[in-house]
Fold this sequence. Notes:
With 302 residues, the chain is of the alpha/beta class.
Amino acid sequence: MSLRQMEYFLTVVEESSFTRAAELLHVTQPALSHQIKALERAVGGALLERLPRGVRPTPMGRAFLPHAERSVRSAEQARRAARAAAGAEGGELHIATVHAVAVGILPDVFARWRRAHPGVGLVLHEYATTEALEDQLERGTADLAVGPPPARWPGPVVPVGEEEIVLVVPFDDPLAGRTSVRLRELADRPWVRCAMEPVVQGRPFLDLACGEAGFTPRTAVRTEHTSTAVRMAAAGVGVATAPAHVVRGAVGEDCAVLAVEPPWRRRLAVFSRVELTGAATAFTDLLGTAGPFRPGRRTPDD
């Protein structure tokens, strides 16, 4: 089997149609069908089921699909790495991250990168959860990921610093004039919860921290993205937790920010499926020096 055959297979699955896949691949439909049949002979069975109105993968095809995705994406990564290896110039670097990091940290880092390495293009892939981030990186969607370090990861993991987690309240909140607060002072408050909240010891971090402070947080609303949670808190829906850099980057001066006593920190790292080289190494180095991090402090997931 060949990478081209796997690419053809992936396109047919994505489009659910030989006709549309042939158009996208710029090949004739008979040529596409011939390559798919050759692939099926190589793997020893039917990968696609032809339906009256479309095409779908067979059970064998569904088992084959993630491996084909990884193979095709690994080949693309190899091409990009080869072009970008010489002095981090040329080629393209694909970076995956969670929404909070994309909003709060990467814009300034990307701007610095463009000034220092104008010959290397950057492509950003954003995900709502760390689980999705790790899954997509494992599938080969990107060259590296930026986010909380995975608990179990077979490839390289490079620490780049820590982010401060703060509390967000509206300007007219009774606590707005203070710089910090102890968590138990918020026992009677509603909370805006985010799907990106880290899980610690098998529980959402806020549940664990509030439990240690002697109360159970009362949820007012749940959001998918951290920036949405911050906006909700700024409007008075409830108290939200967020990285300090997200509050500055996504909301600016529209809300009051409170540090937690004792402070909350979360580690961040760059991780990849393969050893970091060329442009990936240069980007990791830049992130470690340019990111708004505060190293050496306790983190929520420690």
